[in-house]
Write a structure and sequence with these properties.
Length: 297
């Protein structure tokens, strides 16, 4: 007699996972949770870095900030002292600064007196706005009136310095500008600056911008070349000496471009990472420096 199985439709269809399948499922769940946690940590870290950078910028532009030298603003107290002495010795004068920070902005006050003109060239609209707010908070109407801010876009990153220098050495237009700098055919000249800046006869020029802190950051090649070209043009036209200061010469780009276009013969003082050059009328007619170009190994 054949007997039939009872309860065939109840729980007979359910199957328990094998230990291997259970382990695989647990690993998948934990991997997904770990990935989600990593995403949350990364986004939080990025947001925190951006917020921290924003707070550092706001702190640097606080009232009275950055005057005596700090890690935030870059110039040490001794470098600030040298820079202030250079400007004070020529004040009231025509001062052009590539870069903008609280320390550099303070030079506008040093360059005081009838006929004094101070202009800043920056690639940061935010810094320019912060500088205007600082001057407004100080209530220094005479200081604000003597400081002008010009924005520029630097085309080349610091990592492009050597190809640009090799190209400049092969380009006759880069050896020494003729006529006004704004008509220069050299790719290093900042010809997009206003005529107000490029046609002026400057007494003191300072290069502490753009950042140039990494290979992807805007480099100071064009700023140094343009400052040197403007200094040579002013010295030749007025028969006088022009002071040029370059900061961060501990970095390779700033050091080599300063040697190339401001010349070792013109170096008159140095303090920390700040070099002070004095460009005079005369010199070779077809080169910036009387000595040959420095060999880059």
């Amino acid at each position: 007699m054949q007997m039939s199985r009872g309860g065939g439709g109840g729980g007979g269809g359910s199957r328990m996972m094998s230990p291997k399948q259970l382990l695989t499922t647990i690993l998948i769940v934990f991997s997904a949770l770990s990935f989600i946690k990593l995403l949350l940590i990364t986004s939080s870290s990025m947001a925190g870095s951006a917020t921290s950078a924003h707070h550092r910028r706001e702190s640097a532009w606080g009232v009275g900030g950055g005057v005596n030298g700090s890690a935030e603003s870059g110039l040490t107290a001794k470098e600030v002292a040298l820079l202030r002495s250079v400007v004070a010795a020529r004040a009231p004068c025509r001062l052009l600064v590539f870069g903008l920070s609280p320390q550099l902005l303070a030079l506008a006050k040093v360059n005081s007196g009838e006929g004094a003109v101070t202009a800043f060239v920056t690639d940061s609209a935010e810094d320019a706005d912060s500088a205007r707010r600082v001057l407004a908070r100080r209530g220094a109407a005479n200081e604000a009136g003597s400081a002008a801010f010009h924005q520029v876009r630097y085309r080349n990153a610091a990592g492009e310095a050597w190809p640009l220098l090799r190209r400049a050495r092969a380009n006759p237009a880069c050896r020494l500008p003729t006529g006004t700098v704004r008509k220069s055919g050299c790719h290093l000249a900042l010809t997009t600056l206003t005529r107000e800046l490029l046609d002026a006869m400057w007494d003191v020029l300072v290069v502490d911008g753009p950042s140039g802190a990494g290979p992807e950051e805007p480099g100071r090649m064009a700023a140094i070349y343009t400052a040197a070209a403007l200094a040579r043009a002013a010295a030749a036209a007025g028969g006088r000496q022009v002071d040029v200061a370059v900061h961060d010469v501990d970095r390779t780009v700033e050091r080599w471009y300063a040697w190339e276009y401001l010349c070792e013969d013109n170096l008159v003082a140095a303090k920390g990472r700040l070099w002070h050059f004095r460009v005079a009328a005369g010199g070779p007619p077809d080169a910036f420096c009387s000595t040959g170009p420095v060999q880059i190994l």
